[in-house]
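for the recovery benchmark. tokens below, seq after
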């Protein structure tokens, strides 16, 4: 369900197109941490939503939405702020935190901006942990007015069972194309061969 049913500018929600999927999923698979972010959404039985929209004399608009849900599968808190200046520029800031019934936690934050000339940018971070391990990831993407897209992401995932970790980076640009790399470490921090997928 979208946090903002009627955003001030629907174009703000069109993030720059990324040339490749987020590499974080490969990192999670390598360490068996796919369950870190598998926090089931709580039921709607105990949900609260707050929305507000401010229309200013200068033509700018600020819309805020906050959602809190609690159920047998855990708790989720979400918030979003959308701003426009009336000149075709605007931004969306979003935040989400979840706590699963088994104690797993996840936090995600992001910000997207769009300019009147068609350029846009997005940056975001995510962190999660449960009994299997923990994950931290950050990334950014930009789209210039001419449509040129660049993207970069860095992810670190660590297994609670072994202490082994993987550090992965990916980037994309029109000139250099897609680049990916990953380095695995044992619990002492010594580089090791990354495990292969089954």
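predicted aa per position
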């Amino acid at each position: 369900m979208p946090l903002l049913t009627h955003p001030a500018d629907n174009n703000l929600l069109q993030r720059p197109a990324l040339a490749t999927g987020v590499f974080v999923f490969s990192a999670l698979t390598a360490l068996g941490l796919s369950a870190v972010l598998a926090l089931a959404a709580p039921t709607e039985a105990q949900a609260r939503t707050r929305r507000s929209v401010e229309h200013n004399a200068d033509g700018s608009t600020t819309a805020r939405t906050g959602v809190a849900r609690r159920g047998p599968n855990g708790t989720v808190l979400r918030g979003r702020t959308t701003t426009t200046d009336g000149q075709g520029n605007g931004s969306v800031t979003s935040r989400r935190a979840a706590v699963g019934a088994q104690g797993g936690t996840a936090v995600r934050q992001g910000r997207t901006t769009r300019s009147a000339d068609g350029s846009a940018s997005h940056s975001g971070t995510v962190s999660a942990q449960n009994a299997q391990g923990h994950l931290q990831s950050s990334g950014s993407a930009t789209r210039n007015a001419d449509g040129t897209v660049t993207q970069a992401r860095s992810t670190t995932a660590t297994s609670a069972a072994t202490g082994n970790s993987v550090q992965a980076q990916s980037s994309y640009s029109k000139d250099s194309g897609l680049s990916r790399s990953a380095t695995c470490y044992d619990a002492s921090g010594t580089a090791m061969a990354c495990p292969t997928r089954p």
